[in-house]
Amino acid sequence: MDLFRRWAAGSSSAQGPTDRGTYELVGQPVIGSSRRIVASDALKDTVPESEDFDGNAVGNAVGDGPTKEELRTLRKVADRLPWAAFLVAIVELCERFTYYGISGPFQNYISNSYHDPSGLPGAIGLDQKGATALTNFFQFWCYVTPILGAVIADSFLGKYRTIYYFSIIYAAGVLILFLTSLPIAIENGYALGGLVVAMIVIGLGTGGIKSNVSPMIAEQCITTQQFVRTTSRGERVIVDPALTIQRIYMVFYMCINIGSLSSILTTNMELHIGFWSAYLLCFFTFLAGFATLIMGKEKYIMHPPEGSVIPRALRVCWIGLKNRSLNAAKDQYLRTTPGSQVSTPWDDVFVEEVRRALSACKVFLFFPVYWLVQGQMVNNLVSQAGQMQLHGIPNDVMSNIDPLTIIIFIPLCDRFLYPALRKAGIAFKPITRMFAGFVFAAAAMAYAAFVQRAIYNAGPCYTAPLACDAGKLPGGRYLPNEVHVAAQVPAFLFIGLSEIFAAVTGLEYAFTQAPASMKSFIMSMFLLTTAIGALMGGIISPLAVDPTLLWMYIGLVVVALVGGVFFWRTFKHLNDFEDL
């Protein structure tokens, strides 16, 4: 645990000033300046010595702004993460524990009937195609609602209060799911209705949380400009806010995946106790995260809402669309064009912020293809595992290899891979990292196709797994095909690596490229790509039947590769504007 804390904390910085609202870092923003960057009085008294990567003490946050020569020769490091960021990460960990804890058993809960002949746990009995469609609807809904949460936060309540109120809604949804998953409720036919209501309520709750918790954690980082620091070993380094944001989102995403390991517990609980026990555990875990949110209120940096920023941004976009240029929304154009609106509730700076926001959103256009592929691990790959020899392992536990991969490889990438690439002069910039994510996603589907072919080539049921007379046992149960479930492992490994490069970098890009007044909204646009991917998954769900599954996976390989190549060719020039 101490090793994780040291890695996550990183190199050096303040843990947090007494008066966090008065923090200010003053310096020359122009690269090449040698002007000294200083901290405000509120920070000077509260910046302790901290640790670099090797555990050696370093100085405080007061240092020199880098010159051109220093930028060329000195090593760049991330700043230390403040404790407020860790509190936000714990809130997200508990929310993701709940989300994945309840959704992990969904495929079995929906597709298999109560006391199913296959021997797999179940409740509703809608078969694989119906379960895949319903889980895709849930994922779609959960990633559409962040738009509502973002508008409420940016325009009315602010991030903290939006997360607070939507957490109450979320908890109510989990409680509904628990009550309708009790054996007496399943036997009386309440499971399907309760599930649909719970999905709608939980999706609404998670929407208000997801679009705000991501930018809120990054806003806890108070250093905004590069400065030079000398470590206790005598090495002069550049503390780079861009690397700090990169590290924050790697820590954030790792916490998400620690939380997602909950499905290991809940899938075993569904098998050995019942679905109700899994959902009850998730309910109490979510309450623990809600309590953490409340207890940390005084430590958070909280920015007030900007008023009607989203309606104003939409009006700017509308004027730009009508005139084929956003410049038409600027003051000079409006004043000199006959018939134009003279008085507007924005200035030219706001128009440029909208332009910047739109540029960030363009990068997300290809991400639905990525999420379509990544989403296979929570539905079709779960069902694929059910066709294989499980040897006592729940079929829906295999998807946890994905978060385990992420938890292991995120520190390795941050500590070894990325610094080694920077030292070698290899520019592994955001667009390149996201493209690598597409490639790994395609590799995952190629391997899944290989496994599906192996299943179809194995007895006793070959291309009709769990549905042939040769595999039928007394009591109505069926033997799976003779392929060990461990054969699935590389598919989840590739998906995990793809998330490190595509999903983590996408979160980072959404925050860094968004103007301050629209960070929640731009984050919701990135999350919306997940909803579109889930919608696409629902459209192709009729292909999720034997024996067409093999061709579905092959098609996904082609889609991921083509989408990745178009993404790279369209946006590779944006790497030129990045320092990393």
UniProtKB/TrEMBL annotation:
GO cellular component, one term: plasma membrane
Gene3D superfamilies documented for this protein: MFS general substrate transporter like domains (1.20.1250.20)
Molecular function terms from GO: dipeptide transmembrane transporter activity
Keywords from the named record: Membrane, Transmembrane, Transmembrane helix, Transport
Membrane topology type: Multi-pass membrane protein
PROSITE patterns with a match to the protein in the record: PTR2_1, PTR2_2
Transmembrane helix in keyword set: yes
Transmembrane intervals: 138-157, 164-184, 190-209, 248-267, 273-294, 431-450, 489-509, 521-544, 550-568
Principal subcellular localisation of the protein: membrane
Superkingdom of the source species: Eukaryota
Entry keyword annotation includes Transmembrane helix: yes
Compartment(s) where it occurs, according to its Swiss-Prot or TrEMBL record: Membrane
Family: Belongs to the major facilitator superfamily. Proton-dependent oligopeptide transporter (POT/PTR) (TC 2.A.17) family.
Protein name as annotated: MFS peptide transporter Ptr2 like protein
Organism: Zymoseptoria brevis
